[in-house]
Amino acid sequence: MVDPLVEAAREAQRHAYAPYSKYAVGAALEADDGRIFTGSNVENASYGLTNCAERTALFTATSVGVRRFRRVLIVSNSEPPAPPCGACRQVLAEFGLDLVVRSVGPRTERQWTLRELLPDAFTPELLA
User: pLDDT category, 105, cuts 50, 70, 90?
Assistant: First the structure.
């Protein structure tokens, strides 16, 4: 059985805007209620303004009020498949460190929890 998150992330990858790096990434984020939100990376000539696929998916979900997530799946053409960048890890951590993070490349895949990828994370609880 094909994971619907893989299909959704691959479709999002096809919409990536990556004219500079040619590194197209797609992401699919599964909410606790089962809804799937997708995103692709969007590059900019001013490189610092580029947005990653994972954050695009998260911002789409939060813009409609979703705040609880089960897992995120990232597809790229990297081998081994790339984990989320540091900025994406920190933004995802806002919504929980137990999030399952799966990265799929052309031939292999990897999986972690966000807690494994971002030990000693700066989270909202530290602001209390």
Answer: very high
Distance CA 58, CA 53 (A): 9
- On the question of a cis peptide bond just before residue 80, with omega within 30 degrees of 0, the verdict is yes
11, 54, 109, 116: the catalytic one is: 54
Residue for token pair 């990376």 = 41
Matching residue, tokens 């997530």: 69
Q: Reduced to 3 states, what is the DSSP secondary structure of residue 121?
A: coil
Q: What is the DSSP string of 80-116?
A: SPPPPPHHHHHHHHTT-TT-EEEEE-SS-EEEEEHHH
**pLDDT value for 1:** 76
Q: What's the CA gap between 40 and 114, in Å, rounded?
A: 20
Radius of gyration of the chain (CA): 14
CB atoms within 10 A of CB 88: 25
User: What pLDDT does residue 77 have?
Assistant: 97
Active site residue 43: no
The stretch 97-106 carries a mean pLDDT of: 97
